[in-house]
Amino acid sequence: MYAENTLQMEWCLDCHRNPAKKLRPTSEIYNMAWEAPAPDRPVWCSVEDEQNGKPTAQSVKCVTKEPNREPGSQSAAYQKFSSQGELGSFLVEHYKIRKPNELASCEVCHR
Amino acid sequence: MAQIFDRSSNALARASLALSGLIVIALGVTLDQLQRSPWVTRQGQRPDQPVPFSHKHHVQGLGVQCQYCHVTVEKSSYAGIPPTKTCINCHAQIWTNAQLLQPVRDSWATGQSLPWIKVHDLPDLSTSAMRFMCIRAWAAPVATDAWTRCR
Asked: What are phi and psi of A44, to 5 degrees?
């Protein structure tokens, strides 16, 4: 057990200013070996039952194997992501994460 | 009366002005670097624990789930330190004679908790920004990268 990060405020802000670069699918939260998507390691995500005004991380479903694309099946809605940038901005949008100017505002943490 | 300062004093005065400026800047830079150094932040430091427990061995090596030990991680801002019972569940069966695990067996026999050393000694968890960081980093799935270090 060791201290991996400084825990200084700049470390917090680093992510609050650009959450897209750190986000991953909810299903991968406990995956210590998770790596950001890459062209040879893509991720497919789809959105179901999205509701306005609610945190909807649960409505995003992601898989790391190509879903079956049978006509008429739900998997037609899957989008493919091959970089952290693409996946991150998709997740920011559908997890309904606030914009960096709000997230990096003082009272978000100091309240 | 003779001049006290000769002509070379002009250069000396200018040089001392420049030098004071440099010293002030150097002091600022030094303090800034000091504040960011592992000496202050403890980044990368590994305090000696009563038992040399390895997350890498148990999680990556053996595939133990995070929540097996950190049971409150999804409900609380404090992921929880497992009781000795959690260790004993397995270590009553394997490595039962390992010298490294003697403190665990002692703890189990006596009922005294293992005196783990905090790696991140955070200020009052109930009010600090860190607590909120942990909750929210969890709520917005920011990944192990942020929140496993809330331990």
From this structure: -110, 135
Q: Exposed, middle or buried: residue A25 (CB in 10 Å: 0-12, 13-18, 19+)? A: buried
Task: Provide, as residue numbers in chain B, all residues whose Cβ is less than 8 Å from the Cβ of A6.
Answer: 36, 41, 43
DSSP state of B96: T
Looking only at the bridges linking them, the beta strands covering A60-63 and A79-81 are unpaired
- Please give the structure tokens belonging to residue B22: 């440099």
- Give residues 52 to 71 of B whose Cβ lies within 8 Å of A: 53, 55, 59-60, 65-67
Q: Which residues of chain A have pLDDT under 70?
A: 52-56, 69-76, 111
| Nearest beta carbon to residue B129 from set A6, A55, A110 | A110
What gap in Å lies between CA A22 and CA B142, rounded to an integer? 6
ipTM: 0.73
CA pseudo-torsion sign A98, A99, A104, A107: negative
Instruction: Give the nearest partner residue to B43 out of A3, A108, A109, using CB atoms.
Output: A3
**3-state DSSP assignment of residue A33:** coil
CB contact (8 A) between residue B146 and residue A22: yes
Q: Mean pLDDT throughout B38-66?
A: 89
pLDDT tens by residue, B39-48:
988 888 888 9
Say yes or no: B47 contacts chain A, CB-CB below 8 A.
yes
**Which residues of A fall within a CB distance of 8 Å from B149?**
3-5, 7
DSSP B20-47: HHHHHHHHHHHHHHHHHSHHHH-TT--P
